[in-house]
Amino acid sequence: MAIPGHIDPVPVPREVTARSDGRVDLIGLPRARIASLLAEAGLDAKAAKLRSRQVYHWLYHRGVTDFEAMTDIAKAMRPWLAERFVIGRPEIIEAQVSTDGTRKWLLRTSDAHDYEMVFIPDETRGTLCVSSQVGCTLNCRFCHTGTMRLVRNLTPGEIVGQVMLARDALGEWPGSAPLLDAPAAIGEPALDDDDEEASEYTADGRLLTNIVMMGMGEPLYNFEHVRDALQLVMDGEGLALSKRRITLSTSGVVPMMARAGAEIGVNLAVSLHSVTKEVRDEIVPLNRKYGIEELLQACADYPGASNARRITFEYVMLKDKNDSDEDARELVRLIKHYKLPAKVNLIPFNPWPGAQYECSTPDRIKRFSQIVFGGGISAPVRTPRGRDIDAACGQLKTASERKSRAELDRLAEEKQAALG
Ligand code: SAH
Ligand code: SF4
């Protein structure tokens, strides 16, 4: 099997998904790009810059979806903007709520590809699990998404759009009260309406406090789009979520890890899942390309990691595969050897139809956790959430894909029956 690397071609990378009505969706675009679009549409450079600043604020900080709500932009100019631009959101195909409060959305891109996002509330935080790709090229053996082929990378707009949609759904945009009504003509200076609030806005007291890039896809195989989307999320004048509250999870795309640290700078999670070459080669096939030593060295070199901002190692508990006492001790040894400020998240395996693994027993998981704790490394067991709506780890696989798979299974059965 070919193991793709960061330089391998990824199908259909594109900045903006084309729209049939010719208008441009502004969501996902940075301020400078909005300014150049406004200039192309006819504003002089100074006006384009001022207006882009206002529009940017309304889009990402206020979450408005209608140009009419941009009250510091001249009334006459709002329809002018609406003729040329739209403020998009991913289309919601289905929204489900679990008995434990976890919510899952099935979303559709404007060119009809489905992907998912999940919101997981608990006592102290609310975490949005964001997708970076439709499908995934890396066929980790225990992961349901890994059985899908990669359809395409999500655009920055489709990535940041998930966070914006979650804020819409949770009603969490700051101060939606109308601002100063400014009957300014096109090109007049922007009014500094609420810059102060921009710097004061924090996630505290809100439901959505954290973001994890742990939905469908491998974020480091869609590096630029993930980076550009997260920059909008982290920008104090944008969605204004601290980088300390954002975690990017990778299965170990070593050549992109340093860039992720330098250009995004969020917390790092690494899907380790095994401490031996033999087992990791099997369950995370990318290991054949970038081995454990290389991966751990990249973790040691990751900028910004410290005891206050530890690297999370994700470890899915697979019965008789990676869950022995020896595995636990080797995990501790490796983390110490590379002097990694680390914690370990033990994830009970979520079975799915056709999976070839079972989850380790609760006793085994407990013992594994104790050994790692005994080595001085935090190793909590993650409680599976949203199982009743298939929202838990590794369950993200779109309904349409499930259907086609079910159809395939039925066809296989029919064929079997015909043969036998
Ligand atoms: N592609 C990235 C991020 C998405 S996967 C990565 O692999 O890190 C998010 C996490 O869910 C990963 O740690 C992944 O290994 C884990 N996971 C996938 N399938 C799972 C399953 N069936 N049970 C438990 N965890 C799973
Ligand atoms: Fe892709 Fe992550 Fe699933 Fe592996 S675990 S197949 S990298 S989504």
Which features would summarize this protein structure in a list?
420 residues; nine-stranded mixed sheet; two-stranded parallel ribbon; TIM Barrel; alpha/beta; binds iron/sulfur cluster; binds S-adenosyl-L-homocysteine
Question: What can you tell me about this protein's structure?
Answer:
This protein is an alpha/beta fold. The protein has 2 domains: 24-86, DNA polymerase, domain 1, CATH 1.10.150; 91-419, Aldolase class I (TIM Barrel, Alpha-Beta Barrel). The protein contains 12 helices and 13 strands. The chain has helices at 31-40, 45-62, 77-84, 156-170, 195-200, 223-234, 254-263, 277-283, 292-300, 325-337, 362-374, 399-419, and strands spanning 24-25, 85-86, 91-97, 103-108, 114-121, 126-129, 133-134, 152-153, 210-213, 246-250, 267-271, 311-317, 342-348. Strands 3-4-5-6-9-10-11-12-13 form a 9-stranded mixed β-sheet, covered by helices on one side. Strands 1-2 form a two-stranded parallel ribbon. The chain has a two-stranded antiparallel sheet with strand order 7-8. The protein is globular. The protein starts with 23 loop residues before the first strand and ends with a helix. Residues 1-14 and 176-203 have low confidence and may be disordered. Bound molecules: S-adenosyl-L-homocysteine and iron/sulfur cluster. Residues 136, 138-140, 143, 145-146, 217-218, 251, 271 line the site of iron/sulfur cluster.
The proportion of residues forming helix, as a percent range, comes to 25-40%
**For the largest beta sheet, what order do the strands appear in spatially?**
3-4-5-6-9-10-11-12-13
- The CATH architecture category of the largest domain equals Alpha-Beta Barrel
Coarse structural class: alpha/beta
CATH topology of the largest domain: TIM Barrel
CATH homologous superfamily assignment of the largest domain: Aldolase class I
